[in-house]
Amino acid sequence: MNLKTSTIAVLIATVLFSCNQGTKTETAVSQKTEESKQVVSHVMTKEQQQKLTADEVLQDFKDGNNRFQTGTKTIRDHSEMVRKAAPGQYPKAVILSCLDARVPVEDVFDQGIGDIFVGRVAGNFINEDLLGSMEFGCKVAGAKLILVMGHKDCGAIKGAIDDVKLGNITAMLAKIKPAVKMSQDFKGEKSTKNADFVEIVAENNVKYSLQQIREKSPILKEMEDKNEIKIIGAFYNLTNGNIEFIK
Ligand SMILES: [Zn+2]
Question: Considering its fold, how many domains does the chain have in total?
Fold first, then answer.
């Protein structure tokens, strides 16, 4: 090895050594940060699901929504959760939400992978497919709570009020029309220019969906009557992230 070669070898060794030290330091910092943030990687087990009551799930959702609003959501290791959840799912609830991109369902309740079934359709109405999905979620897969969640400033609700006609949207909005009819006692302007009216129709639409579940699914109605599940409504406020629960 001549002088030039040995100098290069020393330089390479120095660079490698310092890189290694850097990696070790970064790993230590990363572990310390993760410890202080309490990263969660737990997924629901069958035993935990079976022990849960609908009231406990509801309280869990209320607490989760509070964390969502205050910016203190749980920090999760999603990669680890994906691996742990792969063998089976034991969700706590079935949530039917609107399609609206401003309603991130898992986030607003601070739930993770495997925690909830989510069905979405513009206007969060009930049809045969969603009822079948709810029956699967509760009767087959063991979920304890059905939550139908509407929201403020809903475009689908506005479309139904305005009687919009366009392609397949026409048939879709027909499913929301009963809620517009339910709201005819409203005192004041009954149009989409009136935000209060839009909100009343959206709330009635949630109530109508709850009614439809009980009328059209003897399986879910029986589970509710036997206190095996709870069926309730929720209303999401787009401006502050708050959720009100509707019975
Ligand atoms: Zn909507």
Answer: 2
CA of 101 to the centre of ligand 1 (A): 9
> How far apart are the C-alpha atoms of 59 and 81, rounded to whole Å?
23
C-alpha 153 – ligand 1 centre gap (Å): 7
Q: Are residues 20 and 129 in the same domain?
A: no
- Does one domain contain both 20 and 56? no
Residues 167 and 214 placed together within one structural domain of the fold: yes
Residue 32: domain span: 1-37
Nearest to 108 by CA among 153, 76, 70: 70
Mean pLDDT of 88-101: 98
**What is the pLDDT at residue 80?**
95
- Looking at this protein, which amino acid is placed at residue 69? Q
Are 27 and 73 part of one and the same domain? no
Half-sphere exposure of 40 (CA within 13 A, CB side): 11
In a shared domain, residues 13 and 57 = no
Strand partners, 230: 145
Q: How far is the CA of 99 from the centre of ligand 1 (A)?
A: 6
Distance 157 CA to ligand 1 centre (A): 7
Which residues is 97 bridged to in the sheet?
Answer: 120, 149
Tokens found for residue 187: 């005192």
- State the distance from the centre of ligand 1 to the C-alpha of 122, rounded, in angstroms: 6
Confidence (pLDDT) at 89: 96
Rounded to whole angstroms, the Cα distance separating 73 from 139 reads 30
- State in Å: Cα 233 to ligand 1 middle: 15
Write down the mean pLDDT value for the chain.
Answer: 90
